């Protein structure tokens, strides 16, 4: 990645020097279907940029990452590409007040999901293209001023192979010369421009709305996927959520959708969940379900659809100046995704999923050594790439939920409306939003922002209760811990056992400030069995319990009737386990006792993941085998009693496959695959088949031939990824050596196959087999970081860190690398530091669990 970085200081200097009037981008993609590897390596890209010099100076640079540049012309003056182009920048000297730059280049197709990604479908040989740019990969497709505050209108023209359709941000059509020409966009940042091209399956619909002023708004809708997935594509549900989202945002934002049409493309080998390109949103195609899935999967997809739609206002219409304020789009979109999901769709319990799932991501990120304020210090593009994390998304969304409780829903939404109208098509900083929220709420937003947006770390809230002689509450206080004691608007709920149920009988909201806050409204209440701080999940914090409440949860967690309260308790117990305050085996016991009674499928899936992680990472090594056996036995027990054909049955089947460890387990999996065993109501479709086959491969009961037979049944792009993962998961030294070489010593695998290979390579039951690669890891990561794209670098450095070699020797090796590589790229050091922290946390938890043994 040398030479491809861009610093914040450079971006600010360039923004002070110039403003951009417009881009005209002409792409020739006919080489995408060439017969040879060389023919499909590059495509022609011709860019015309019109810009003005608005500051002092006559020199700047334009960004372009390309194998070669054919010609550069500035104001009619030809520049020598060999002199002005260094592989990532084109130097421009002698600027006039008004300038026209023309760059003719050969840009490269991508295999890493960055820039113009090219995918060949193994099922039918069809080629599909799409672009992905965030934070700074538009420069891999056309010459750009690659920073978010240099917005400009874009006009695209694309020549594509015969029979293809091309889409971009604006509406387009194919002219008589066979060129696809697209309407000029509104002023937008380069990172949200987009081109999608290929023989995609395309479905259309329309959204109509009568606006408050009586005008009719009509938005053409489109949804697309590869032809091979068309039979699985439930576009009707995608359009349903889309229309419900538009209704919600038009009701609450009072600013009509500003970008014309609204296409949504589900594309292969996508690195992200989705991307908010205005008028042309892209999603990972895994959101098209090839087999039976639970409602939790549909909820996740709906959340992503609405998250990206919220970006049309938060991020696209109004964009942050620089990546420091990335939260101005991602935190808002994450919050609005759950907010609109709960109020406008069938997924009315979305805040339960948010509390249990999204916040877990935030809590982990906020306890890493790389934790940062929500408004982060982003020095350069590598920093920006790594800050698409749990703090920017989920913590930011949690803080906004707290802000709504603090400022009031009406004031918050009115602030959003004024924000859009005041800054439409512009760029903003934190202060711009705070000024408006102060207007609408009458609150001091600067103090709130200082506590919540400009500091890092998570607070812990713990109840402290004393009782009078009659057993009633004499005083209930909330104790707050953390480096920064913040103001929390939180609810405290009191629960008691009644008729076999654990139900809330009293609740009080309070402003929690400082180290100790008395909740006066609960004095005099009868003694509770459970005190739940942060009931209803109004604030962002880790929750602890008093001794009596913890004992109640150990015996009665499944008796809590409210699904949100139950989800909060699961999350709190998991945080206790991660913090080495609850032995992993105790958490597993709670999972075995109560997971079968969990009604919310999304929560159940999260609990399954936590239970498996508890055994893999946090259990004492001597207890791991027993813990794994107990999970597998519990999973099979629940699988057999689950309602036939239910999503609970499917969820337990997947968990049983993930935990299977005995010969009897493997024989049952083999029987389910070959049809000799049956579980009433369980439909073993192709996706479930891969799940059932996976542990057989990991434990040496499915060889290359057997895996190949499964691929023959599912010879698709998805089947190929499963095959690659299973091949790398086999318990063989030769297999591991081959997988390592494919990922580390070669760059021929696509991003999706790199991910699949790493997932197969790292198996908890194969710790000894992959132990030799710990030393190799530290020897190669700096070279690999320098040679690969940042996305592949991140995948490999995170994915291959030897966390399964969980001993003090690996911790020492990590520390030694960090000490010897203080000058390594900060982003690389951050990834290693984060992995080190996970390892150290696991060792502390293992010590805690060992003491319980």
Low-confidence stretches: none
Global Rg: 28 Å
General form: globular
- Characterize the biggest β-sheet: 12 strands, mixed
Q: Provide the β-strand percentage band.
A: 15-25%
Total strands: the figure is: 28
Q: Give the fraction of residues assigned to helices.
A: 40-55%
Task: Describe the protein's architecture and organization.
With 853 residues, the chain is α+β, with helices and mostly antiparallel strands. Helices cover 44% and strands 21% of the residues. The protein contains 28 helices and 28 strands. Strands 1, 2, 4, 5, 7, 8, 9, 10, 11, 12, 13 and 14 form a 12-stranded mixed β-sheet that branches. The chain has a 5-stranded mixed β-sheet with strand order 15-16-17-19-18, covered by helices on one side. A 4-stranded mixed β-sheet has the order 26-23-22-28. A hairpin with a 2-residue loop joins strand 4 (68-74) and strand 5. Helix 16 (621-641) runs antiparallel to helix 17 and helix 27 packs antiparallel against helix 28. The longest helix is centred in the C-terminal third of the chain and has 27 residues, at 826-852. The two termini are 48 Å apart. The model has no long low-confidence stretch (mean pLDDT 95).
């Amino acid at each position: 990645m040398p030479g491809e970085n861009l610093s914040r200081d450079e971006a600010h200097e360039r923004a002070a020097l110039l403003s951009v009037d417009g881009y005209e981008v002409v792409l020739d993609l006919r080489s995408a279907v060439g017969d040879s590897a060389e023919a499909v390596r590059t495509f022609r890209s011709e860019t015309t940029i019109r810009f003005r010099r608005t500051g002092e100076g006559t020199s700047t640079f334009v960004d372009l990452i390309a194998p070669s540049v054919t010609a550069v012309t500035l104001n009619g003056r030809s520049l020598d590409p060999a002199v002005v182009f260094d592989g990532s920048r084109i130097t421009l000297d002698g600027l006039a007040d008004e300038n026209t730059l023309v760059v003719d280049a050969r840009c490269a197709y991508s295999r890493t999901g960055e820039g113009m990604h090219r995918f060949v479908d193994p099922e039918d040989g069809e080629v599909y293209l799409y672009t992905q740019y965030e934070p700074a990969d538009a420069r891999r497709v056309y010459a750009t001023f690659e920073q978010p505050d240099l917005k400009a209108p874009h006009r695209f023209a694309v020549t594509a192979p015969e029979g293809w359709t091309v889409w971009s941000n604006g509406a387009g059509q194919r002219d008589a010369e066979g060129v696809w020409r697209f309407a000029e966009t509104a002023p937008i940042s380069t990172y949200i421009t987009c081109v999608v091209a290929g023989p995609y399956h395309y479905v259309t619909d329309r959204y109509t709305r009568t606006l408050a002023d009586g005008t009719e708004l009509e938005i053409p809708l489109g949804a697309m996927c590869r032809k091979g997935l068309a039979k699985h594509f439930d576009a009707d549900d995608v359009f349903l959520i889309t229309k419900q989202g538009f209704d919600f945002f038009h009701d609450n934002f009072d600013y009509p959708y500003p970008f014309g049409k609204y296409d949504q493309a589900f594309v292969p080998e996508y690195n992200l969940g989705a991307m908010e390109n205005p008028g042309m949103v892209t999603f990972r195609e895994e959101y098209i379900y090839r087999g039976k899935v639970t409602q939790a999967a549909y909820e996740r997809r709906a959340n992503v659809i609405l998250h990206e739609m919220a970006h049309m206002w938060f991020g696209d219409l109004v964009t942050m100046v620089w990546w420091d304020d990335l939260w101005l789009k991602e935190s808002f979109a994450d919050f609005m995704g759950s907010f609109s999901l709960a109020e406008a769709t069938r997924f009315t319990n979305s805040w339960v999923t948010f509390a249990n799932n999204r916040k877990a991501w935030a809590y982990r990120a906020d306890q890493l050594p790389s934790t940062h304020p929500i408004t982060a210090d982003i020095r350069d593009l590598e920093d920006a790439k790594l800050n698409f994390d749990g703090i920017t998304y989920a913590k930011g969304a949690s803080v906004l939920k707290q802000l709504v409780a603090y400022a009031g829903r009406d004031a918050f939404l009115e602030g959003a409306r004024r924000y859009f109208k005041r800054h439409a098509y512009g760029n903003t900083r934190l202060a711009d939003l705070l000024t408006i929220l102060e207007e609408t709420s009458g609150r001091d937003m600067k103090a709130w922002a200082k506590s919540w947006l400009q500091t890092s770390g998570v607070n812990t809230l713990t109840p402290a209760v004393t009782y009078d002689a009659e057993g009633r509450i004499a005083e209930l206080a909330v104790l707050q811990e953390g480096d920064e004691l913040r103001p929390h608007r939180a609810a405290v709920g009191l629960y008691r056992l009644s008729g076999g149920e654990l139900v809330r009988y009293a609740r009080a909201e309070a402003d929690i400030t400082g180290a100790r806050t008395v909740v006066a409204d609960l004095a005099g209440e009868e003694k509770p069995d459970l005190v739940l701080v942060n009931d209803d999940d109004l604030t962002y914090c880790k929750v602890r319990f008093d001794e009596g409440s913890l004992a109640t949860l150990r015996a009665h967690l499944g008796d809590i009737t409210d699904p949100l309260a139950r989800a909060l308790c699961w999350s709190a117990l998991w945080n206790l386990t991660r913090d080495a305050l609850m032995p992993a085996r105790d958490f597993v016991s709670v999972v075995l006792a109560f997971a079968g009674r969990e009604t919310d499928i999304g929560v159940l899936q999260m609990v399954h993941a936590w239970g498996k992680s508890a055994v893999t990472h946090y259990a004492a090594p001597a207890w791991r085998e027993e813990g794994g056996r107990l999970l597998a036995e519990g999973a099979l027990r629940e699988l057999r009693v689950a309602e036939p054909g239910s999503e609970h049955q499917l969820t337990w089947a997947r968990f049983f496959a993930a935990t299977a460890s005995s010969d009897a387990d493997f024989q049952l999996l083999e029987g389910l695959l070959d049809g000799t065993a049956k579980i009433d109501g369980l439909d073993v479709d192709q996706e479930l088949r891969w799940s059932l086959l996976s542990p057989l491969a990991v434990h040496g009961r499915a060889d290359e031939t057997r895996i190949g037979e499964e691929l023959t049944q599912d010879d698709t792009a998805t089947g190929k990824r499963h095959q690659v993962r299973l091949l790398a998961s086999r318990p063989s030294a030769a297999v591991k050596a081959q997988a390592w070489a494919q990922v580390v010593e070669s760059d021929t695998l696509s991003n999706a196959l790199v991910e699949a290979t790493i997932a197969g390579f790292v198996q908890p039951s194969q710790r000894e087999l992959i132990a030799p690669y710990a030393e190799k890891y530290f020897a190669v990561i700096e070279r690999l970081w320098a040679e690969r794209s940042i996305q592949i670098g991140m995948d490999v450095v995170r994915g291959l860190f030897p966390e399964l070699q969980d001993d003090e020797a690996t911790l020492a090796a990590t520390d030694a690398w960090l000490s010897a590589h203080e000058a390594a790229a900060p982003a690389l050091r951050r990834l290693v530091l984060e992995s080190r922290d996970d390892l150290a946390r696991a060792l502390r938890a293992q010590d805690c669990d060992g003491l319980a043994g």
